[in-house]
Specification:
This protein is of the alpha/beta class. 39% of the residues lie in helices and 25% in strands. It contains nine helices and ten strands. Strand 7, helix 6 and strand 8 (198-201) form a beta-alpha-beta unit. Its EC number is 7.4.2.1.
């Protein structure tokens, strides 16, 4: 569990609504994420968790409300949007690595192209990050030569290479074989302990209990409940959350 020293907000969502056609996927979302906080978002499938995650770096636009990141409203387009995306890392369910580039090239591409970092500097930093996530020895291989767990750790290193202010994780372990899940969660727990601001959409309740500062429970596009992990898992306040927990914690 990370001690959250700086309480100033990094992300503030107010009155956020989002529709996909007639489907109201985000309903009046109000949420603040502090610097250094690990916020874990859980809930049933189709509850709006991934959509919420994707609105913060504007992969999804919103219909109503405001989202402020680091004191500024989310930009709509152009260079300001590119800058925002370089400050908000994203790790997806699918790894989204470039198949024709080596592991090291995948990690250094962003810093070289977007930040204008010199190649030798980017490669040195890239190797440090691959070592940090435990796959330095794989640097010259291609994604197809790695396991799913290793590929997801590359994706985390790639996000870190941009020195982001925050990383969004959208179900980062759900596409992995069970034996690979822990190796990815261990890397994420390490980041949490180092004070990285993180928003994690996940079904991994053990991770939520161990690494989160706060758990947000979403259902049907709404934030139904939010609390500390201890309080949420031992003393959920709403019937909807208790019902969800009874289904997932009994197997």
């Amino acid at each position: 569990m990370t001690e959250n020293g700086d309480k100033t907000p990094l992300v503030v969502l107010e009155g956020v609504n989002k529709h996909f056609g007639s489907l109201h996927v985000l309903r009046d979302i109000n949420l603040t994420i502090s610097r250094g906080e690990v916020l874990v978002v859980i809930g049933p499938s189709g509850g709006g968790k991934s959509t919420l995650c994707r609105t913060i770096n504007r992969l999804e636009t919103i219909d109503e409300g405001t989202i402020v990141f680091d004191g500024r409203p989310l930009p709509a387009e152009g260079k300001a949007l590119a800058r925002l995306r370089s400050e908000v890392g994203m790790v997806f369910q699918s790894f989204n690595l470039f198949a024709h580039k080596t592991i090291l090239e995948n990690v250094t591409l962003g810093p070289i192209r977007v930040r204008g970092t010199a190649r030798d500097v980017a490669e040195r930093r890239g190797m440090e990050l691959l070592e940090r996530v435990g796959i330095g020895a794989q640097a010259s291989k291609y994604p197809a030569q790695l396991s799913g767990g290793q590929q997801q750790r590359v994706a985390i290193a790639r996000a870190l290479a941009m020195d982001p202010k925050m990383i969004l994780f959208d179900e980062p372990t759900s596409a992995l074989d069970p034996e690979m899940v822990q190796e990815v969660l261990d890397v994420m727990i390490g980041l949490a302990q180092e004070g990285m601001t993180m928003m994690v959409v996940t079904h991994e309740m053990g991770f939520a209990r161990r690494a989160a500062n706060r758990v947000v429970f979403m259902a049907e596009g709404q934030i139904v409940e939010e609390n500390t992990p201890d309080e949420f898992f031992t003393n959920a306040r709403t019937d909807r959350a208790r019902d969800f927990l009874s289904k997932i914690l009994t197997h």
